[in-house]
Specification:
The chain is an alpha/beta fold. The chain contains 10 helices and 13 strands. The protein has a single domain, classed as Alpha-Beta Barrel (TIM Barrel), CATH 3.20.20.70. The protein has an 8-stranded parallel beta barrel, surrounded by 6 helices. A two-stranded antiparallel ribbon has the order 1-2. A two-stranded parallel ribbon has the order 7-8.
């Protein structure tokens, strides 16, 4: 099965192509530190056989968190807790990445001001954000750079920049939320400027041999916003700076999205083929047949199973046993599988 074939990206070699995507757990302390929950949660998925684990959205500033119970990486003292997660996952054979983020206008943190490219609030129950000044943009860019350095110090194998789901970088990219008239707004190239500066800055503090990639929302589900072809143009703008693109959709507007199994896969396929960049496909992928088809048909290089791995952290073990793939049953659990040698 292609699902269980290795995949190499720079110096990171995955034992399979199954990814635990970043999902907020809301179990951090109020000041952004990890807890025992995080070690148990992520290490269990590593023991269950995940090839790649991407740790949840981690704020680069206190006010950049989505909520006050999200992880943070804005000071050195937060690094040690994340390193314990890395060490636990590595012990059980998984590679591990960290997603760093600024929530922008969707932040519900009480830690500071709500920031956005333009003073447009997300919904009626959200704050009206302050339009970012150029000094704000420089400060947040520097925060991404410092967080990337700390992520390397913690030992992460790879780094994901969150440019999706209606958070700050996505807000700059979309004409629906970016109404600026300066060099950060207007044309597509200007709307990409902030993202490009963040990626360039992070490249300077993140080791060249380690993969760096971008999470994108390739469709805003509004005719005036980002769609597949526009996202291809955006990725082309920053293509030399990223090693992979993790493709999802939505989140910018409080709109109802009609989802179904694999509903975002075509977007990952389009970016992979038109931009010539490896991709992760995600979006209600729940069974091995669908995941295998995505890989066999060259629609993506990796597949992420979010909710399915919440329900069953040993999905990899179950799938490997059913398909006769050796090496996935932990030694201590083999008594549960008497036919496994």
């Amino acid at each position: 099965m292609k699902l269980f074939e290795p995949f190499r990206l720079k110096n990171m070699e995955l034992k399979n192509r199954i990814v635990l995507p970043p999902m907020c757990m809301y179990q951090a302390t109020q000041d952004g530190f990890s807890t025992l929950f995080h070690i148990c949660h992520y290490a269990t998925r590593a023991l269950g056989g995940a090839g790649l684990i991407i740790v949840e959205s981690t704020g680069v500033t206190p006010e950049g968190r989505i909520t006050d119970r999200d992880l943070g990486l804005w000071n050195d003292s937060q690094t040690d807790g994340l390193k314990r997660i890395v060490d636990a996952c590595r012990k059980y054979g998984a590679k591990i990445a960290l997603q760093i983020n600024h929530a922008g206008r969707k932040s519900k943190s009480a830690a500071g001001p709500c920031l956005a490219p333009s003073a447009l609030r997300f919904s009626g129950d959200c704050r009206v954000p302050a339009e970012m000044t150029e000094n704000d943009i420089k400060r947040v860019t520097a925060a991404f750079v410092r967080a990337a350095h700390r992520a390397d110090e913690a030992g992460f194998d790879a780094l994901e920049i969150h440019g999706a789901h209606g958070y700050l970088l996505h807000e700059f990219l979309s004409p629906l939320t970016n109404r600026r008239t300066d060099s950060y707004g207007g044309s597509l190239r200007n709307r990409v400027r902030f993202l490009r500066e963040v990626l360039n800055g992070v490249r300077g503090s993140w080791p060249d041999e380690k993969p760096l990639w971008l999470r994108v929302s390739a469709c805003d589900y509004d005719d005036r916003g980002i769609d597949g072809p526009m996202m291809v143009r955006i990725v082309d703008e920053i293509r030399p700076l990223v090693d992979l693109v993790h493709v999802s959709s939505g989140g910018l507007l409080p709109a109802k999205v009609k989802d179904y199994p694999g509903y975002q896969v075509s977007l990952a396929e389009q970016i992979r083929k038109e931009c010539g960049v490896p991709t992760i496909a995600v979006g209600l992928i729940t069974n091995e047949e669908m995941a295998e088809e995505i890989l066999q048909d060259g629609r993506a290089d990796l597949v992420a199973l979010g909710r399915e791995l919440l329900r069953n952290p040993y999905w990899h073990v179950d799938t490997a046993v059913r398909n006769g793939v050796p090496g996935y049953v932990p030694e201590s659990y083999k008594r549960a599988f008497p036919k496994i040698k």
